[in-house]
Write a structure and sequence with these properties.
Length: 130
């Protein structure tokens, strides 16, 4: 199946997850060129619904123990990373931005329980001032 997002989108990251609790895998992709994250939800007939675009490399994990997937991404050009917290309707709250340090040029991120305390941790790789 091929689904066109939009012309000149140039995706640079991709993650999968059930973002709307629909028991189907949905797609989330990011574009460096357009500074957008696009979410494609799969409906019960396994057809993609209209894409939803969020302004700003995505990754998804529940930050809180609420089972809702959240979107975490780096904002390379403004030295920060952001989190969109998920809601039960499959939508996301506005991005909360955290500064990574002036001139850091955050590039990649990963998430997981890095400290074995059952809480989600975040590691950000910077290309400058690492």
């Amino acid at each position: 199946m091929i689904h066109s997002i939009k012309d000149r989108f140039n995706p640079t990251g991709l993650t999968l997850g059930d973002f709307n609790s629909g028991s189907r895998i949905d797609i989330l992709t990011a574009s460096f060129q357009t500074d957008n994250v696009v979410r494609l939800l799969l409906d019960k007939d396994e057809l993609f619904l209209n894409s939803i675009s969020y302004s700003t490399e995505p990754s998804s994990q529940p930050w809180y123990h609420d089972e809702l997937l959240d979107i975490t991404l780096v904002n390379q050009e403004n030295n920060s990373f952001g989190i969109f917290f998920g809601a039960v309707n499959g939508k996301f709250a506005n991005q909360i931005i955290y500064l990574a340090g002036n001139g850091s040029f955050s590039r990649l991120l990963t998430m997981g329980d890095l400290s074995n305390d059952t809480s989600m941790d975040l590691a950000v790789a910077n290309t400058v001032n690492s």
